[in-house]
Amino acid sequence: MSASLLRRGLELLEEPGQREALQELQRERDGPRVVGAARRRKGTSQPGRNKATVKGRVVKSAIEEYHKKQPVNHLTANLKYMLKGRIVANKAITEQVLAQNRGRKSKDQPPKKAVKKKPEGTVFTEEDFRKFEREYFGRP
């Protein structure tokens, strides 16, 4: 940040009337000769033209620059955006995209899912067995 922007920012923050008091103190400290020499040096440049500024340039406030560079939390806006659309992609397409983006190394491959075995059981109930026994063996 340049000295002029810093000075301008400090001017915004100080109380009215304080600047004149500071300038008076500076003049007393420097003495009349130094102030006169500074005026003479200023007078040597072309009158009415300030070479330190660029044509059409707007001097910005130091406070505005400070606020511009502060980190902004975009969490709420991002959450609104993400929760706004409820369209869910097809599971097969999602898997295909993930497979394309995976590397060929074994560390990039997802762990293989174990196939769940169904518990082996009969389709017949006890009542069916009794009924079969009665019909086959002829027992009541």
From TrEMBL:
A UniProt-annotated Pfam family: AROS
Gene Ontology molecular function: enzyme binding
Annotated spans, Disordered: 19-56, 99-121
Main location: nucleus
Keyword Nucleus (UniProt): yes
Protein location: Nucleus, Nucleolus
Compositionally biased residues, Basic and acidic residues: 19-32
InterPro entries assigned: AROS
A GO CC term assigned to this protein in UniProt: nucleolus
Keyword Methyltransferase part of the UniProt annotation: no
Keywords per UniProt: Nucleus
Family designation: Belongs to the AROS family.
Protein name (Swiss-Prot/TrEMBL): Active regulator of SIRT1
